[in-house]
Amino acid sequence: EVQLVESGGGMVHAGESLRLSCVVAGSPISSFDMSWVRQAPGKGPTEWVSGSIPGGATPYYSDSVKGRFTTSRDNAKNTLYLQMNSLKVEDTAVYYCNVPGIAWGPGTQVTVSS
Question: Which residue, 11, 60, 72, 101, has fewest beta-carbon neighbours within 10 Å?
Fold first, then answer.
């Protein structure tokens, strides 16, 4: 069974940075495509943020975060990261990592104040 746990969320001011981590247990992340998605407060659907495929390929990003967010992997730590710079109020959301079709983490809250 694949299990994911996110961490690193918190409350920051606009313009500041956070780094989210997603530790994966049960299988090596080198086997998986992985994604970051987020759900803003009071909004139904999740918003896809970033995707990462194994093998060192360049991650891909939504237009709303491109140039500010960076996804990376550490296969030795079996961990996926999301470095978030120049945070905006509209980035406030619960952030989830997932292995599409297989597993989701419980999420970590990111709150950005003006």
Answer: 101
Query: For all residues of the chain together, what is the average pLDDT?
Result: 94
Contacts of 43 (CB under 8 A, 6+ apart): none
Nearest to 103, CA basis, from 46, 32, 49: 32
> Do residues 110 and 84 lie in contact, with contact meaning Cβ atoms separated by under 8 Å?
yes
- Counting Cα atoms < 13 Å in the Cβ hemisphere of 94 gives 15
**How far is the C-alpha of 7 from the C-alpha of 9, rounded, in Å?**
6
Q: Which two tokens stand for residue 29?
A: 């992340």
